[in-house]
Every structure is written in C-alpha cells, then in structure tokens.
Amino acid sequence: MSTVALEIGSQAKGAHGTYTIAEKLHRDNVWRGANTQTNTNVIVKTAPESLLRNERNMLTRFRDVPTLRRLLNEVQDPPLLLLEFEPAGQGC
C-alpha cells in the first residue's frame, strides 16, 4: 500500500475538472494544486486507497461541519482527494 508519487507540474483529471500540482505542503502526500479552468487553489491528498476511501467517507458524512475542509472532487487514477484550500490564517 504505497502512495502515488506526484511532482510539481503534473496534472490529474477528476470528475469536475483538471488540476495542476503546484507545491508540496507536507511530505509526499499533501500538495497545493489549482483547477486549470478556474485557477482555484485546492489541497491535493494522496494516500493508500483504503485511507483515502475512509477519509472520503468521513468528509462526506460530516460535510456540514464548518471546521472540516470540504471534499471538492476525486481522482481515480491516480487515487487523490481534492479539498477546499484555505490560505494560512484564514481557516478555522
């Protein structure tokens, strides 16, 4: 169960858009990306599929909790979650 290796400039296509990886935020599993159509920043998360599935289920279940980032999109290949991006100091 390994995570997907991403690199700056790579692209991922989800059901609601295409995203370009822009910056590594934490280790090799949390990145900042941008929707190529709207130029909106997103958090891109990669992990073993079972962990992503669990996180997706929890984010969906608790989508009305304002202190959790919203799940915006998913990518199947490679498996990624795309979450709303909050600049430092503006989040919860």
From TrEMBL:
Note the superkingdom of the native organism: Eukaryota
Q: What is this protein called?
A: Uncharacterized protein
What organism does the UniProt record list as the source?
Heterodermia speciosa
Q: What is the lineage of its organism?
A: Eukaryota, Fungi, Dikarya, Ascomycota, Pezizomycotina
